[in-house]
TrEMBL record:
<dbReference type="GO" id="GO:0046872">
    <property type="term" value="F:metal ion binding"/>
</dbReference>
<dbReference type="InterPro" id="IPR006689">
    <property type="entry name" value="Small_GTPase_ARF/SAR"/>
</dbReference>
<keyword id="KW-0460">Magnesium</keyword>
<dbReference type="GO" id="GO:0006457">
    <property type="term" value="P:protein folding"/>
</dbReference>
<dbReference type="InterPro" id="IPR044612">
    <property type="entry name" value="ARL2/3"/>
</dbReference>
<dbReference type="GO" id="GO:0003924">
    <property type="term" value="F:GTPase activity"/>
</dbReference>
<dbReference type="InterPro" id="IPR005225">
    <property type="entry name" value="Small_GTP-bd"/>
</dbReference>
<dbReference type="Pfam" id="PF00025">
    <property type="entry name" value="Arf"/>
</dbReference>
<keyword id="KW-0479">Metal-binding</keyword>
<dbReference type="GO" id="GO:0007021">
    <property type="term" value="P:tubulin complex assembly"/>
</dbReference>
<protein>
    <submittedName>
        <fullName>Uncharacterized protein</fullName>
    </submittedName>
</protein>
<dbReference type="GO" id="GO:0005525">
    <property type="term" value="F:GTP binding"/>
</dbReference>
<keyword id="KW-0547">Nucleotide-binding</keyword>
<feature type="binding site">
    <location>
        <position position="73"/>
    </location>
    <ligand>
        <name>GTP</name>
    </ligand>
</feature>
<dbReference type="InterPro" id="IPR027417">
    <property type="entry name" value="P-loop_NTPase"/>
</dbReference>
<keyword id="KW-0342">GTP-binding</keyword>
<feature type="binding site">
    <location>
        <position position="30"/>
    </location>
    <ligand>
        <name>Mg(2+)</name>
    </ligand>
</feature>
Amino acid sequence: MGLLTIIKKQKIKDNEIRCLLLGLDNSGKSTVVDSLLPAEEREPENITPTLGFQIQSVVIDGQYNVSLWDIGGQVTLRPFWENYFDRTDALLWCVDVNAQLRFDESIQELRSLIHRDQGRIGYECQVIVLLNKIDLVTPNDFVNVELMERAVLDAFGLNKSEMSGNIRQKSVKFVQLSALTGQGITQLQEELVGIINAR
């Protein structure tokens, strides 16, 4: 293998991250993956619940490679989530903001995951909380979205007043999006590129 080949491979690796996509069942994780694909590869009508896991590679701006590990959110699969964290650069935690009755369950699972992970999430592994299905939220329900953001920060032992000084806080970002309509997908791509560039 020549030096030029080694340099090219390193450059590709430097522009690459591995993301773990977790959240409750029916939160829209697979639709998020689909929305990050090029338009000609999207198949929103063929999306079914993920049983086990699926891996999809996407390229952002023609140069940033993102490997997305979409892990099923069914109750029977949740105890195995922590097994997928090896070499993970970012956790994408997907929340269906339209399913307000499941907010507590989502926060409970996130807390459990943080506890089992023993401190890696939010330090070595960046966190992007995807507040999905935002297109279905009425103006009156945006208060609940803000409450969800506060509950996520609380799960990490943080609050809004700590945002500027806490290292872990800087590793937790929120993206309001609709994977179905594409709203917020550009912001998600920018956050992913930011993680790559910050390494």
